[in-house]
Amino acid sequence: MSDFRQLSDQVWASPQITLADVQAAAAMGFALVINNRPEGESPDQTPGEDIAAAVRAAGMDYCAIPIAPGGFTHEQVADMAKALGEAGGPVLAYCRSGTRSTLLWSLAQAAAGEDPDSIASAALQAGYDIAPIRGIVESLAAEARN
């Protein structure tokens, strides 16, 4: 069973999920599952198409915003913000460890003008450190407020 970690009232991050985790996510009331893991990153990962089919069969929505190790694009941040904004309820985002999902959530929150300290605190409470992108979070939040 995956380790679903709450980032906000509506968003959780998780390490790689399995088909059994999809059923747990449905039982917990998630409306959307976001896959932030590129296909083929590891031979033991459940393929995204299998997760997508199980998610949809369980009555949830699915989208993929794959993040390769090493960085994020403006488009990925915008796609994450859009997915979160259009979700019909709680969201579960996953990648290999949950870190990329958390960092992408952090960037989307900052782009919406959320407070960087609050973002960092929420991530830390979930067991994730946004230090590698803290400067970008601060810049995005400042841009959004201006």
Write the layout of secondary structure elements.
Blueprint: E1 5-6, E2 11-14, H1 19-27, E3 32-35, H2 48-57, E4 61-64, H3 74-86, E5 91-94, H4 99-111, H5 116-125, H6 134-145
Parallel strand pairs: 2-5, 3-4, 3-5
Antiparallel strand pairs: 1-2
Task: Give me a quick take on this structure.
With 146 residues, the chain is an alpha/beta fold.
Describe this structure in words.
With 146 residues, the protein is α/β, with parallel strands linked by helices. It has a single domain (5-145), classed as Protein-Tyrosine Phosphatase, Chain A, CATH 3.90.190.10. The chain has 6 helices and 5 strands. The protein has helices at 19-27, 48-57, 74-86, 99-111, 116-125, 134-145, and strands at 5-6, 11-14, 32-35, 61-64, 91-94. The chain has a 5-stranded mixed sheet with strand order 1-2-5-3-4, with helices on both faces. α1 packs parallel to α2 (48-57), α4 (99-111) runs antiparallel to α5 (116-125) and α4 (99-111) runs parallel beside α6. It is globular.
